[in-house]
């Protein structure tokens, strides 16, 4: 490129030199006679004309290149505009089906608020909320304009394409679940509504009982009045009075839900699971367990051996209590106690409770018998020490040399609402499994709580507990 330019400028320079010099016809320099001057003037005219022609050629070539570029840009912009409009046409065609389907689903969800035990309705509600949260409806108001840049048109076309895909995928589920839910509602008879209303009345009575002192009395009074009305409706409604029963259900459910929402967390109305850890504290692994729990915002319960609550482990116990975990006892060391003499039982309880309460700053109210083995004498000592005996409903199996994945699977698959899970914080595989356990349980909708939260108001010293609503009362 540069060589060509140098060549062009060389020609101009030669022409310029030719115009400036005065030469005679034989090639020698003139001595200034008239004929030499005339020849010089002719040459300058010729050179000027050549320069003008060359310049015009350069200008013409430049305009030709610019014109070609402009033409290409126009064609590319026109193609982008056409693509955008085509994408919008496909989008609008799908949107035309999407809008009535979403409207029908939204109306159906409003009409079936009283249907609280339907997986189909829950799935439909989640899908509708997900679609409402996207930019589908916003795009319907946008247009592809010739004033937009190629990039803007390309981005808008991509947005139309993505939204159309979302609508197509979502509509399949929305339409299917809407049809299924409608069929279920149409087939629901008065007998079905009676069963559902009876179940709700029981839930309302439990909410009335457990909300005492926790919710404003005027609201509890309104619930009590509505419970009377619901029972009367059950007694008087005819065999085909589905609408009457459904309306009563909706009124009562609104009040019951409001009461529950106003209460502190209560595991009788929330799906809870309590993770528990035995035989610590362990200097190496217990801090790692606490770190995982803290990061996940998951409270738990620790049953400690008294013999380990010393030295730097005292700070671990303080940390447990300070971070909101329950701290209970599993006796002085892991030895089955159901056959121990009374005096030895008494000493082990006293010694263990002393070191734990001193470290945690709290009384010990929860006791786990080693290996879950217990008898009447052990139960009596727990009662005399002011402690309930906490066993478990889900065994993680981490004591049996299982790997982290196996431990996590066993816990997540085995857990149920109100369950107590047995783990060991001194086990390295348990530490590795814990994040998966927490993620898996939360993914199934469980709220992780301490044992004292799970059983709040439900247990007394001497009770033997396997889970929520699974308590053997102490007859004493």
TrEMBL record:
Keyword Transmembrane helix listed: yes
Organism superkingdom: Bacteria
Residues of the NodB homology domain: 271-449
GO MF annotation terms: hydrolase activity, acting on carbon-nitrogen (but not peptide) bonds; metal ion binding
GO process terms (BP): carbohydrate metabolic process
InterPro entries on file: Glyco_hydro/deAcase_b/a-brl, NODB_dom, Polysacc_deacetylase_ArnD
Keyword set, alphabetical order: Hydrolase, Membrane, Metal-binding, Transmembrane, Transmembrane helix
Transmembrane segment boundaries: 45-66
Gene Ontology CC annotations of this record: membrane
Annotated protein name in UniProt: Secreted polysaccharide deacetylase
């Amino acid at each position: 490129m540069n060589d060509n330019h140098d060549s062009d400028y060389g020609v101009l320079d030669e022409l310029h030199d030719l115009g400036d010099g005065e030469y005679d016809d034989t090639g020698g320099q003139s001595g200034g006679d008239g004929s030499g001057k005339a020849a010089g003037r002719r040459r300058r005219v010729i050179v000027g004309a050549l320069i003008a022609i060359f310049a015009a050629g350069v200008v013409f070539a430049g305009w030709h290149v610019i014109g070609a570029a402009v033409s290409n840009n126009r064609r590319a912009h026109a193609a982008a505009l056409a693509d955008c409009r085509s994408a919008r046409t496909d989008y609008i065609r799908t949107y035309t089906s999407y809008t009535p389907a979403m409207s029908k689903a939204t109306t159906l969800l409003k009409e079936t608020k009283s249907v609280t035990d339907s997986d189909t309705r829950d799935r439909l509600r989640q899908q509708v909320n997900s679609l409402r949260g996207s930019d589908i409806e916003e795009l319907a108001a946008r247009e592809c304009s010739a004033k937009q840049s190629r990039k803007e048109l390309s981005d808008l076309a991509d947005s139309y394409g993505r939204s159309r895909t979302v609508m197509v995928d979502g509509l399949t589920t929305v339409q299917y679940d809407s049809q299924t839910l409608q069929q279920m509602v149409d087939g629901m008879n008065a007998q079905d509504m009676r069963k559902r209303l009876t179940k709700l009345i029981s839930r309302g009575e439990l909410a009335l009982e457990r909300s005492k002192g926790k919710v404003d009395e005027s609201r509890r009074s309104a619930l009590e009045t509505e419970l009377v009305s619901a029972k009367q409706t059950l007694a008087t409604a005819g065999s085909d009075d589905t609408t009457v029963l459904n309306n009563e259900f909706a009124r009562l459910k609104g009040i019951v839900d409001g009461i529950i929402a106003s209460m502190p967390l209560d595991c009788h109305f929330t799906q809870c699971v309590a993770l528990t850890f035995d035989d610590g504290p362990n200097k190496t692994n217990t801090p790692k367990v606490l770190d995982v729990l803290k990061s996940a915002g998951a409270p738990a319960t620790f049953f400690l051996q008294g013999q380990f609550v010393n030295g730097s482990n005292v700070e671990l116990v303080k940390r447990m209590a300070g971070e909101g975990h329950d701290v209970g006892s599993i006796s002085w060391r892991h030895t089955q106690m159901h056959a121990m003499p009374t005096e030895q039982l008494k000493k082990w309880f006293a010694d263990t409770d002393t070191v734990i309460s001193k470290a945690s700053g709290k009384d010990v109210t929860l006791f786990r018998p080693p290996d879950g083995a217990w008898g009447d004498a052990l139960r009596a000592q727990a009662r005399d020490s002011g402690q309930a005996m906490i066993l478990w409903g889900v065994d993680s199996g981490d004591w049996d040399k299982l790997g982290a994945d196996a431990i996590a699977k066993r816990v997540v698959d085995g857990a149920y609402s109100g369950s107590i899970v047995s783990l060991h914080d001194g086990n390295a595989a348990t530490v590795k499994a814990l994040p998966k356990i927490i993620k898996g349980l939360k993914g199934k909708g469980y709220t992780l709580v301490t044992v004292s939260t799970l059983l709040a108001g439900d247990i007394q010293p001497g009770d033997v507990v396997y889970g929520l609503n699974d308590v053997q009362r102490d007859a004493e």
